[in-house]
Amino acid sequence: MSTASPSAFLLWAVLSVMVFLVYHIWCYDKFKCLHWSSGRQPGAFKRIMTYSYLFSVPLLAVFSVATTVIKFQEGFIVMSNGQIVPKPLRLYSSHNRAWIIPLDLVFSAVWALELVTHLEELAFWLYLLHQNPQKEEWFSSWEYRLWYLGSVVSVIGLPLTAIVTRKNIETCDAYIFLVGASGSTFTTICFLYVIWRFPAFIAHVKAEGAEPTVVVRLATFYQLNLARIVFRFLFTIPLMVLAADGVMAGPHTINRNVFWTDFLHMVGGIGCFVSSTITLLIFFPRSIVNESGYRPKPPTVPASSPKMMNPDSPNFNADYAGGYPNSPSYPGYKLPLSISAGWRKEHE
């Protein structure tokens, strides 16, 4: 915030107030998914995951719009060498300077919620890939504990970073960027393991004769996550570069260069909002087939066929509850435990 121009944050503001979130959820189920008791397995965990994502979007809009307004109010100054740069924070009016720390706290809360959301995704996909007949339930698994501990660290650590570094308003946001980008980059790198193993899992599910809708949904998730990983790196790496240059002693070559400062801020903003949009598509997957009213004909395969997937079968180890198969928190579909267990045995 201290070195970026008003135009860079104007891009953040424009992207943050896009109405796609409202439009998509309305088309998804007319906001029914936002009710506490929505879904077949209502519970606090499911609600936490839904609201942690949905709250982060408007909070990010608050930060982006407010920062843009302040930046344009303060404008630019002319340096002794004739260079025109955004006005430093120390020269802000007292009224606008009073808003800097509160906005930094808002941004730290946004990033904490973002980490909570994506840690859960990572933990769930690891849980899915590691399934076997002896695998414990989600709430007893090490993957759930990984998400729980990581979420606690994020929710406490990022706002605490803003509080501890608030005395120097010109580097406060740099430390938030550094801590948040480090955590998000690490999470994204870990997700590469999931992406690497997922094609083999999809192939095994297909070979086991799963419903076409299950295979299509898994393939769609795989493609969406490929794109999202790219944009998440575009979000975290530019901000990490800016943060590292800002907190290290030295001439701050990048932060004092108007072009590179704005370029990295803009790339980070685009990566942030595009990856957030893809997350929305994954969390709340619309079915154009169902929305169009199409109903396929009943299958001609006998009901006793092992290729048929019975929703009431004890082989199903989780409910349809959220954008992911077997997830206790998202609406999706079910996979037979025998499929994931067989795949696990073949690839160990």
Question: What is this entry, summarized?
Answer:
The chain is mainly alpha-helical and 348 residues long. Helix content is 64%, strand content 2%. The chain has a two-stranded antiparallel ribbon.
Task: Explain what the structure shows.
The protein is elongated, with a radius of gyration of 23 Å. The N and C termini lie far apart (48 Å). The protein is 64% helix and 2% strand. By secondary structure, the protein is mainly alpha-helical. Strand 1 and strand 2 form a beta hairpin. Helix 6 (142-164) packs antiparallel against helix 7 (169-207) and helix 8 (212-247) packs antiparallel against helix 9 (258-283). The protein has a single domain, classed as Rhopdopsin 7-helix transmembrane proteins, CATH 1.20.1070. Mean pLDDT is 81; it is low at 303-334 and 336-348. A two-stranded antiparallel ribbon has the order 1-2.
Q: Notable features of this structure?
A:
2 strands; transmembrane helix; 64% helix; elongated; mainly alpha; Transmembrane protein; Rhopdopsin 7-helix transmembrane proteins; disordered C terminus; membrane; 348 residues; transmembrane; two-stranded antiparallel ribbon
For the termini, the CA-CA separation is 48 Å
Q: How much strand content do the residues show? A: under 5%
| Number of separate domains | 1
Radius of gyration: 23 Å
Topology as a string of helices (H) and strands (E): HHHEEHHHHHHHH
- Strand order across the biggest sheet? 1-2
What general form does the structure show? elongated
Tell me the layout of helices and strands:
Elements: H1 6-16, H2 20-29, H3 44-74, E1 76-78, E2 84-86, H4 94-97, H5 100-129, H6 142-164, H7 169-207, H8 212-247, H9 258-283, H10 288-291, H11 337-346
Antiparallel strand pairs: 1-2
Keywords: Membrane, Transmembrane, Transmembrane helix
Transmembrane segments: 6-27, 48-70, 99-126, 146-164, 176-196, 229-251, 263-284
Organism: Cristinia sonorae
